[in-house]
From TrEMBL:
Keywords assigned: Aminoacyl-tRNA synthetase, ATP-binding, Cytoplasm, Ligase, Nucleotide-binding, Protein biosynthesis
Pfam families: tRNA-synt_2 (PF00152), tRNA_anti-codon (PF01336)
Assigned EC number: 6.1.1.22
Compartments, record wording: Cytoplasm
Stated name of the protein: Asparagine--tRNA ligase
Stored SUPFAM superfamilies: Class II aaRS and biotin synthetases, Nucleic acid-binding proteins
Gene encoding the protein: asnS
Primary localisation category: cytoplasm
Length: 430
């Protein structure tokens, strides 16, 4: 019976055949232990010379790292295995022999591993991170579909930008200028006016020359937008969504979290609601902590976000940033024009901002005024302003950066490990 490693628990005591790659092996004169993987999981195959004969045993001993094989054996329960099962090998055949596999079971430098990212993905650690990423994506669709959202796909090529064009990749669209999208938000607002509650999930691009562990040039965003949702409504959706994906990973990726050595107690503590800190109070707190480099009106940097987040076991909202440092589309606080109804959600453990969101301006004249203040071409945004001309309503939305969220939940230090093929300032290969 042909099966996969993830399904062997359904065949205890039975003979199965698995197509797999050899991750590693160790052997003596009488027994060989094969570390096998097939993409769905990892299992140890035990080859006993007295049971399989000399020909099969020598074939097992001679296997090279990452050779592909068909392995036939009996599934046995094994409490010593993190997976809970092992395979008593009866037969094996080599599909393709691997020669001089470059990533050996020893320490390799980061640049070497990134140059071989196409192969590094095969490792236990990277496999675990990608499985957690997949679970977050699966749970995202479940959360929004269950809560009445409609999936909408905004364009990647755009003629304008939600936050100006200084950090966008420019290209020619025949005889026009175009940009790779830094956010689908403006288009999602249009979709929300048609469909009520919508969300997108797709690639975004930022031409930031940043080398920090939190930044990628190409990354994926989940961007919900909701008609008739005001600022506080928006925060509730965010904290419920983040709580949901955390619980989904804890439930469905226990083995992967264990493999990564993740302290799951920190994740288990994360349940809505999340604390909220007003920007005014954040600045006061930072001054009390000795941060003399920041004044009211400045944007918060990574050290500032980390200092605030260290006071909480859950993610924390920093709300009501100054109007002057935020994009043109954010709704002013009705009691203070110098701040807007926005919030950044800061993950604990030093992972920084994972969500940025706000209530959007719904007044046509105010939006036109903001476009003028930001020196943005009103013709390029004509379609966007028309959303306020034909039945404007209060509406809100946010964007969650998938890679930062994967890094945080997985516990990996750098976002480059949270995406299959990262695009960094100095890396476009492989």
């Amino acid at each position: 019976m042909k099966t996969t490693i993830s399904q062997v628990g359904q065949h205890v005591g039975q003979e199965v055949t698995i197509g797999a790659w050899l991750g590693n092996k160790r052997s003596s004169g009488k027994i060989a232990f094969l570390q096998l993987r097939d993409g769905s999981g990892f299992i140890q195959g035990v080859v006993v010379k007295s049971e399989v004969g000399d020909e099969i045993f020598q074939k097992a001993k001679g296997l090279t790292q990452e050779s592909s094989v068909y392995v036939t054996g009996i599934v046995k329960e094994d409490e010593r295995s993190p997976f809970g099962f092992e395979l008593e090998v009866q037969d094996l055949s080599v599909i393709s022999e691997s020669v001089d596999y470059p990533i050996t079971p020893k320490e390799h430098g980061t640049e070497f591993l990134m140059d071989h990212r196409h192969l590094w993905l095969r490792s236990n650690r990277q496999h675990a991170v990608m499985k957690i990423r997949n679970e977050i994506i699966r749970a995202t669709y479940e959360f929004f579909n269950t809560n009445g959202f409609v999936k909408v796909d905004p364009p990647i090529l755009t003629g304008s930008a939600p936050e100006g064009t200084s950090e966008l990749f420019h290209t020619k669209y025949f005889d026009e200028d175009a940009y790779l999208s830094q956010s689908g938000q403006l288009y999602m607002e249009a979709a929300a006016m048609a469909l009520g509650k919508v969300f997108s999930f797709g690639p975004t691009f930022r031409a930031e020359k940043s080398k920090t562990r939190r930044h990628l040039i190409e990354f994926w965003m989940i961007e919900p937008e909701m008609a008739f949702y005001e600022f506080d409504d928006n925060l509730v959706v965010q904290e419920e969504y983040v709580s949901f994906i955390i619980q989904s990973v804890l439930t469905n990726c226990k083995l992967e979290l264990t493999r990564l050595g993740r302290d799951t107690s920190k994740l288990e503590a994360i349940q809505a609601p999340f604390p909220r800190v007003h920007y005014d109070d954040a600045i006061k707190f930072l001054h009390e902590k000795g941060f003399s480099d920041i004044a009211w009106g400045d944007d918060l940097g990574a050290p500032h976000e980390t200092a605030i987040a260290e006071n909480y076991e859950k993610p924390v909202f920093i709300t009501h940033y100054p109007t002057a440092i935020k994009p043109f589309y954010m709704q002013p606080d009705p009691t203070r024009e110098d701040v807007v109804l926005c919030a950044d959600l800061i993950a604990p453990e030093g992972y920084g901002e994972i969500i940025g969101g706000s209530e959007r301006i719904n007044d046509l004249q105010l939006l036109k005024k903001r476009l003028d203040e930001h020196q943005l071409d009103p013709e390029a945004y004509k379609w966007y302003t028309e959303l306020r001309q034909y039945g404007s309503v209060p509406h809100s939305g946010f964007g969650l950066g998938l890679e930062r969220t994967v890094a945080w939940i997985s516990g990996v230090e750098h976002v480059r490990e949270s995406i299959p093929f990262p695009r960094l300032l100095n890396r476009l290969y492989p």
